């Protein structure tokens, strides 16, 4: 179950490893659409890790209030080290999607950088529902994550497989398969505004806009709980 996942143990070397394996592409992908958010008043960063996007967000939107919701205390400590006491428009919460239960139409922007791959099946459906409900109609959502499909090169599938094994050992991450994000996202009233690929198409960042409230029951097809490859 997702509640056992804990990134504390790898927070100290996460950026170093990410840099070795992906160079600057992980950061470039998640920061790519940050300047396309209109003028948000409230931003939610969910699972932001060590906080690569904090500086650009503060620079682009100095008057926005930023809620940094992250489940690893060690990751939050590293993210906090990037800000000064004057940055009082930042609120760090060590928590999970459960902290969003009472947040309805609160945020102008939701950002999910390489975090939704932690969830699977009913968990990802629930997390997406909570994030979607927390976003106000007309608000924007930047979703960045890995992407492979059946036509992807074998080395990319192997890298994803290795990453999931690595996080299983180091972070007790239980799911072992990359979700088919398109199927999940397409089940919400979200308009895709833009999409950009990185790292030989293995990473994608997408900019969505919420155009209406969702139906009470999320209708995700059964295919979504399967994966693109196994
Ligand atoms: C793969 S890391 C990505 C970190 C960062 N976004 C990056 O790209 O460098 C996933 C992050 O999501 C956080 N996370 C995992 N499950 C979470 C949850 N249920 N709620 C909030 N954050 C979570 C982890 O602590 C970790 O920092």
Shape-level CATH architecture: 3-Layer(aba) Sandwich
Name of the CATH superfamily: Vaccinia Virus protein VP39
CATH topology: Rossmann fold
Spatial sequence of strands, sheet with the most strands:
3-2-1-4-5-7-6
Instruction: Tell me the domain tally.
Output: 1
DSSP summary: helix tally: 7
Termini separation comes to: 19 Å
What fraction, in percent, of the residue positions are helical?
Answer: 25-40%
Q: What is the chain-wise order of helices and strands?
A: HHEHEHEEHEHHEE
Segments where pLDDT lies below 50 for 5+ residues?
Answer: 218-230
Q: What portion of the residues fall into strands of 2 or more residues?
A: 15-25%
Question: What is the tally of beta strands?
Answer: 7
Q: Average pLDDT, to the nearest integer?
A: 92
- Ligand catalogue: S-adenosylmethionine
User: For the CA atoms, what is the radius of gyration?
Assistant: 17 Å
Structural class: alpha/beta
Sheet having the most strands: 7 strands, mixed
Net shape: globular
Which CATH first-tier class would you pick?
Alpha Beta
């Amino acid at each position: 179950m997702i509640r056992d996942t804990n990134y504390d143990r790898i927070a100290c070397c996460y950026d170093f490893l990410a840099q070795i394996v992906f160079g600057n592409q992980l950061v470039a992908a998640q920061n790519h659409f940050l300047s396309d958010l209109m003028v948000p008043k409230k931003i939610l960063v969910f699972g932001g890790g060590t906080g690569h996007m904090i500086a650009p967000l503060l620079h682009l939107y100095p008057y926005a209030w930023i809620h940094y919701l992250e489940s690893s205390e060690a990751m939050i400590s590293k993210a906090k080290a990037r800000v000064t006491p004057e940055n009082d428009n930042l609120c760090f919460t060590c928590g999970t999607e459960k902290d969003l239960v009472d947040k309805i139409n609160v945020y102008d922007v939701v950002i999910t950088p390489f975090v939704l791959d932690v969830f699977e099946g009913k968990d990802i459906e629930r997390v997406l529902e909570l994030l979607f409900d927390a976003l106000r109609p007309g608000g924007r959502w930047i979703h960045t994550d890995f992407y492979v499909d059946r036509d992807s090169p074998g080395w990319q599938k192997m890298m994803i497989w290795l990453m999931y094994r690595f996080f299983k050992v180091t972070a007790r991450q239980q799911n072992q398969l990359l979700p088919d994000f398109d199927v999940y996202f397409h089940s919400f009233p979200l308009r895709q505004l833009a999409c950009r690929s990185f790292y030989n198409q293995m990473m994608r960042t997408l900019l969505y806009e919420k155009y209406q409230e969702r139906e009470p029951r999320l209708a995700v097809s059964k295919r979504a709980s399967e994966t693109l490859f196994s």
